[in-house]
Amino acid sequence: MSILVTRPHPENEATADNLRARGHVVLLAPVLKFEPVAFHDESEANYSAIIVTSANAIRAVAPQLQDLGLLKLPLFAVGEHTATAARDAGFAEVIVAGGDSAALRDKVIQSARDKVLKKKSTLLYLAGADLSRDLGGELGTEGFNVVTQTTYRMAPVKILPRDVCEGFAAHGIEAVLHYSRRSARAFLDAARDEGVEISALAIPQCCLSETVASVLRDAGASQVLVAAKPDENALFDTLERALRTRLA
Predict the structure, then answer these.
(1) Helix or strand or coil: residue 159?
(2) Which of 19, 79, 93, 212 could form a disulfide with 74 if both were Cys (CB 3.0 to 4.6 A apart)?
(3) Residue 248's pLDDT is what?
(4) What is the DSSP string of 189-223?
């Protein structure tokens, strides 16, 4: 029996390694594909800090960071994975939030209260093309000026790998891991196109957040579990709980 990981490459490889270390057989179906977007900052703004909600945003602009003079700025990262990508890219001052956009917003607001940032600072938001929430608008209501720059998009992959389709057909997949709302939707679309939607939704769907879980519930999945907090270790704990329940 296998665990299906739907997150994009290259993060899916690290997830697979961690799962294998826990004794699981893993199948990979990256249902979104990373595509960088040309970055041209014409705002001429004097930024006080950078905010980032995905490591992909840093990966997309990494070759330009030095020339743009951005590495000298403090960077607010949504979680530890994104923070690691920022440090690897050369950022020296990285502030880590609790794992989701709401926690990142609160971390920025608290930094203003603590006098780390000025209340009306201009922030550069390196973002994806599809945003799950209006982080710039939320910070704008707190007095910040947020300049949002799209640096990448995640394009849906419309087919599932053959071994994954065969795994669903043979009832050889025992759970699916979902990391984002968009990837959950892309997974559902691909499963429907491949004719394996019923089998795919009949097994536990382990989700990084409630926002992700709602996509699966709306599609008819009956075994939807949500990580206690939005990080991978918590998601793995949720997976183990789901597997124990199936064996009980």
Answers:
(1) coil
(2) 93
(3) 60
(4) HHHHHHT-HHHHHTS-EEESSHHHHHHHHHTT-S-
